[in-house]
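Could someone model adenosine-5'-triphosphate with this protein?
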Amino acid sequence: MIEVENLVKRYGNHLAVDHLTFQVEPGKIYGFLGPNGAGKSTTMNMMTGYIAPTEGTVRINGFDIQKNAEEAKRCIGYLPEIPPLYQDMTVLEYLRFAAALKKIPKKEVEKQLADIMEMTMTTDVSERLIKNLSKGYKQRVGLAQAILGYPEVIILDEPTVGLDPKQIIEIRELIRSLSEKHTVILSSHILSEVQAVCDEIMILSKGKLAACDTPEGLTGLMKGNAALEVHILGSEEALRKILPFIAGIAEFSIENAPEKGAVKAVIRTEAGEDIREDLFYALAENKMPILSMNRVEKSLEDIFLELTEDQSSISDPDTAEHMSENKGGNEDEGNL
Ligand SMILES: Nc1ncnc2c1ncn2[C@@H]1O[C@H](COP(=O)(O)OP(=O)(O)OP(=O)(O)O)[C@@H](O)[C@H]1O
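Reply:
Sure, complex below.
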C-alpha cells in the first residue's frame, strides 16, 4: 500500500506538483496520465525517493520514503524515464551489478537473473554491450533491473516511449503479467495505453489530480456527455416549445439544418439517459418528422483534453465525485 499525502514540489516559483493526495492499493495496475509537464515524472521521482518533496509525505507499506528510506526503497522497483544503464557493461554484468546494489542474497541471484531475463526477453542479448542495444532492448534491460528482487511495487515512467508497435505489445503483456504478483504504477501521456493496461487511471494536470477512476468510470463519464444530433422538419420556434418537456435533456442548441425547412438540434443528455424514444413520440405528436438522428459521443481524448485544459472545473470536489460515480461500459479499442 502506498499513501501519498499533500505532496508538493516547487522548482523556484514553479509549482510542479501541487498538494497531491492519493492511495495505491496492492495488486492493481495504476496509470498516471497527463500531458507533458503535468508532473508525472516529478511525482514518481518523489514516490521512489529519487528527489525530496518540498512538502508532504510518501509512505510505502508504512515506511516513510524520507525517514525510513532503506526499508521503503526495498519495496520498490523503479524504471525512470531515462533508464540508469551503464552503457559499457554487458546486459548480464549490469544486472549482476544491480542485483548486488539491491542486496539480493547471493544464492538467489543466478536463478533470479535467469528468470527475469527470460521474462523480459533479454536472455539472447545477455553478453551484448548495453550501448549497442536498440532502444527497445535498453528499455527491457531497465525493466529487468526494476523487477530484480521482486519488489512489491514496480514503478515505470513512460515504459513504452520510443518503442515500435510490436515491442509495445510485448511490454504491455509483460506489465500485465507483473500485476499478478506486484502492484504496478506506470505513467504515460497516451490515453489508450493507460486504458489498455490499467485498473485505475489517475489523470494529472498542472501538478494536480484531475480525476481518478477505473477506465470504465471514465468511459461512463463519456457516455454521460453523449449528445444527439437530430435533423427535424419544422421550425425552431416549435421545437423550442417541445424539448423542455422531455425528461433527461441537460441542454440543447438549435440551428438551421442543410435540408429545406428543417432545423438541426444538438441535444446533450443527463448521464445514463436515452431520450430517443420520447423524442420520437413528442415530435410525431407535433407532426415534426425526424429526417435523421445520430448519437455523437465525446471521445475519451476529448474528456482527457477537457480535464487537463480546464483545471478550474476539475479541481471542484463535486465534479470529481460525480466522475467516480459514473461507471459504464468500455468501448475504447485501446490500440497501444
Ligand atoms: N529539475 C527541474 N527544474 C525545474 N523545473 C523542472 C525540473 N523538473 C521538472 N520541472 C518542471 O516541472 C513540471 C513537471 O515536470 P515533469 O517532468 O514531472 O512532467 P511530466 O508529466 O513527467 O512530463 P513529461 O511527460 O514531459 O515527462 C514541468 O513544468 C517541468 O518543466
